[in-house]
Amino acid sequence: MSADLPRGLVRSRRTRVLALALTFAVLLLVALASIAIGARAISPGTVLDAFTHYDRTLDEHLIVRTLRVPRTLVGLLVGLALGMAGTLFQGVTRNPLADPGILGVNAGASLAVVMAIYLLGVGSLLGYVWFGFLGAAVASVAVYLLGALGRGGATPIKLALAGSAVAAFLSALSSAILVIDAATLNQYRFWAVGSVAGRDGTIAAQVAPFVVVGAVLALVTGRMLNTLALGDDVAQGLGQRVGLIRVYSGLVAVLLVGAAVAAAGPISFLGLVVPHLARMIAGTDYRWILAFAALIGPILLLGCDVLGRIAARPGEIQVGIVVAVIGGPFFIALVRRRRLVEL
């Protein structure tokens, strides 16, 4: 890691804690907005009443408890998972442009869902979750095994190349199935756009254990990634097992992305932008970067989800589309304003 890396907007431990608390407060406000704003606006007071004095006969209470709260919970989990996973991928590969798609996770999950619809007739989001998770895991293992071939083992460059190759191959298989079967395409496209709409409490409960466990394991990697950022030779000289660190961090990232993609479909740019925002605030210490990414991810996802509801009211634009529309120009502006560092 070069000596001139930016140290972040906040540098002392005390200011970082305060900044983290402020970020958490922003997350709470965005979550409240996600519950209150939609095709039918609901006041904050009514939202509070839906929790403290729930009345099944009131439409507003039913909307809050059965539709918007589960949707917000899924958004929180997915945003947290993608934000932390993107940070892990960038730390492991030491590539500032790495995102969860670098190990073929999105492509693997998408192919598994397509095959589940085409071969098994699966037609519910509840069924997509497990097939998406399985596909993400299998694709990631395949990428690692392919990247580990040859001399030097699974280096960052070989993993990136292997990931790109596997993702292209799996995407081609998915496209082939969708072209020959219109019914599969009609079902798949609602999942593939990337959305938290229509997700109920059952899906949130299913993916929550994976995301929570993955988040805890990801926080443990902070010191490891700090050492890895110094370079492989230095890390080995300090007694670190570089290969083991990469395998561990990669598996944790796959766990997080697999859960997120299975629940909400492939959502681009979030895992790419969030680590850079966290690094702008916290500097180069991955212990703090991961903590900020865990909060910034859901802030961006829920914020984009709310924007999608406002922009097309009384309908809505799915969050995957809003993230892509906002994320692309935002990341270009980020690159122009701040030199992308060599991690």
Automatic annotation (TrEMBL):
Keywords: Cell membrane, Membrane, Transmembrane, Transmembrane helix, Transport. It comes from the Bacteria. SUPFAM superfamilies: ABC transporter involved in vitamin B12 uptake, BtuC. The chain crosses the membrane at residues 72-89, 101-121, 127-147, 159-183, 203-226, 247-274, 286-307, 319-336. GO terms for molecular function: transmembrane transporter activity. The keyword Thylakoid does not apply. GO terms for biological process: siderophore-iron import into cell. It is found in: Cell membrane. Pfam families: FecCD. InterPro entries: ABC_BtuC-like, ABC_transptr_permease_BtuC. GO terms for cellular component: plasma membrane. It is a multi-pass membrane protein. Belongs to the binding-protein-dependent transport system permease family. FecCD subfamily. This is Iron ABC transporter permease. It comes from Nocardioides marmoriginsengisoli.
